[in-house]
Fold each of these.
Amino acid sequence: MSIFLFSFAGKQIFKRVEDNRRNTVLTITGSDSTSGAGVQADIQTISALGGYAVSVITSITVQNTIGIQDFYNIPPEVISGQIEAIVNDVQPQAVKIGMIRSAAAVQSITWSLRKYRPRYVIYDPVIISSCGDVLMSDDTVDCIKENLLPLCTLVTIKKKSAEYITGRKLSSASDMFDAACDILNYGCQAVLLQQGTSMAEYSMDILVRRGEHSCKYVSTPDMYNSYERHGMSSNLSSAIATFYCKGNDLYDAVTKAYNYVNQSFLSHTDLIGRASELYNEFVNEVAEHFKSNRDVRFYADSLNVSSRYLAQVTKRIAGKAPKTIIDDYLCHEAELLLSSSDKTVQEIAYGFSFSSQAHFSKFFRKMTGTAPSEYRRTKQNKTSYE
């Protein structure tokens, strides 16, 4: 009896191990501190769909809800070491690849893929950011075309990145199909081109498989105009990889992934930073202290943030640097005093903590293009005329 129970328990454990291996997805991408995209978001998506996520980090980003401030790329030998450690032990069925920022990293990953030959390789190229910034060098893109794309089961790519890779301007369904075929010619098995074409409230993405002379359209009504939402494309490619592991073919995996991402999009709430609140607090601080302090660091310290973060907030909301906002506010107040008070220019200068009238006049001329006395005279003449 005990031998029977031991044998039965052993079989159950072995079955669970096999199930885990069958549903294991390796994500190779960058880290995102906000968990909206990158490896953190991939792990969430894969786990939510019943897969088991393992990961390799290619780049560490310094970012928040305002955006990316810096990149720290992981050395190629460390990337290949991470892949080897995971694949030797866990043997994932599918590999999802996201951010790769150097040709050396691409070569390291492709060497590992050729060596270990995972069943499915899904690549989501992060070439153009949602802000339109190019995130890779031309050398890296060329290396991807030559070495990585031929190893891919599916390439999921957004319109801007497809335009960059193919050199085509994509403005019609025919353009999209031609671009997808161009990417197929690099050797991958299938291409999912997102933001394919639009009809009313529907977005029709294009799915093209090698050897087929036509494309399938994937209807995505709920995701229309949402592709630039942080992490949307990353979540989609991770979902496709997971559904591949579960035994779905290409079209079913893509369709189910869209359904999942649509549902999560409807119920998901983005992480909201304190940018708007902080900006209002900054403006209030300026109104209170502009006469005595025009140093950005003073305001950053008062708000308990770094000067760099404060600059990101003001740039995003007002399109101006903090110093510009401070100077604009001071100049506006100076204009009011010059046009509506009897104070001398010297009194105004000292009231705003300038070291001398000359210093204030230099600041005012730089801001307005005219000297304080000239500005006052012009305003008085205009008032007399009226």
Note: Confidence is low (pLDDT under 50) at residues 13-17.
Amino acid sequence: MKKVFLLFIPALLIGFTACRQNRLKVDVSGIDVSVKIKRLDQDLFKVTPLNEDSILPQLKKEYGNFFNLYNYRMIRLGNPDDIQYPDYLQKFLTDPMIQKAKAAVDSVYPDLSGLEGQLTEAFKHYKYYFPDKEVPKVYTCISGFNQSVVMAQGILGISLDNYLGAGNAFYKELALPEYRRENMRPQMIAPDAMRGWAMSEYPEKLNGSKLIQHMIYQGKLMYFVDAMFPEMEDSLKIGYPAKKLEWCKKNEGAMWTYLVGHKLLFSTEHLEVLHYINPAPYTSSFTSESPGRTGVWLGWQIVRKYMRKNKEVSLEALMKDTNYSEILNRSGYNPD
């Protein structure tokens, strides 16, 4: 059984050059993929104490493994077959915060045809590069502001309550910091979902690994998103505001010089790794104008340069490659 992946996605930049566009802009018109999203966020809320005996068995059958995943890992109500489960579920469904989240989701997402179109195009690209892999079933739900995206064998689940819009009053009421709210918008669902899917298909055990290994692994995930969305703006892929994105472009060389000069690339110190990889309002070792996760951005640029210089390397080969030292060396990455 494939490992379950739970993502709190804040989000994950620099424009393609012509050669990059040519490599990733492929013809997928002949690939037969059509993503249809099943909306547990709507169906679950039809359950009442009066109809639960008939509706719950239908939901268990219709949603299968995702229903179990949702209950065990996302809203943590436990086994849907437990005799007390209907009571737990009603407490969840009638919780005032969940009710407000449901109303907000209904308002922002009356229809998911646009998202279905985006994911259809993305998974056409996925089948182009990975013809032997299966396209997962896609589900949406309300998680109570827990995981943004969950993945398991053949399953891709999306929590719509984490994508209501950066300015949504609900998020301010929850006192979520601005850098998190910036990426809790509908436009981030598709890139977040595909990055999450890449992570589930190509997981890495990086505990105790060097910072540069984390950077390049994250760069591989971002390059995967490049390939799935060759026309998408980099700011959406990485989840940076325009000013933060521009700062990275202007200071790429300075950031790299700092990491090299302070011998941080080969640090295995956990807090150092988190400092450059995890979400934050900015990277404190640089300036307050910098974004968080600058290590992810730099790793992305390393992988992009590696793939430009080594055109014989396929996307599948890249994703399977765990020789991070070789990727760094063969990239020739050394920004001014």
Note: Strands lie at 5-7, 37-39, 137-141, 149-152, 155-159.
Amino acid sequence: MSAPIDKTFIREYDKNDGNVLKIHQSEIGDVGCVVWDAALVLSKYLEKQNDEKKLDLSRKTVIELGAGTGVVSLVAGSLGAKVTITDLPEFLPLISLNIQENKALLTGEIKAETLIWGQVSDVMKKTEWDLILLADCIYYEESLEPLVRTMVELCGPRTTILCCYEQRDTGNKPELEKQFFELVRKNFEVSKIPLEDQDNEMSSADIHILLFTQRIVHS
């Protein structure tokens, strides 16, 4: 289901520098139509890393997969990154609305593009991405393999992937997480960002931030 932009409500995101991003959410739609907690946790982590001079996003090439409302990308864009926000075509109107709404705070270049996992364009493959962002993308079993394949196709030797997800114990979610990380570890080195390195207020024991880097294959 698409994200209608004629019926939206705004969630304000208070940045550490005192500015406020206004994020439109859709009253009707699928999982991509609202701001999820994992997106907020990842956004605040980016801000903290920037504030502590541990991660300089200025002019870095960033792509977000399954961006939904685009809040994580908008935070990165407000920190000077050159961001490509991607999701299924039905979510692009909502993402574009949020870009327009927050244009005054976006110091980096930012654009929205369709990306169906497993169908990466040659232009995206050839781009040297510094950072790939994912927030709460472990949701549907049929999307796991295409998602990991997309990550592999976009990732270069200097690319860092930050994956934030909320651990869920209901239904098939534990099995989905297991399958996802089995696929990830075949291609990437995985490390966990400790809670003490995350935002003091916007963090949680059941929301994890993981860092993936390309696995070096020795001949």
Note: Residues 8-214 form a domain with the Rossmann fold fold (CATH 3.40.50.150).
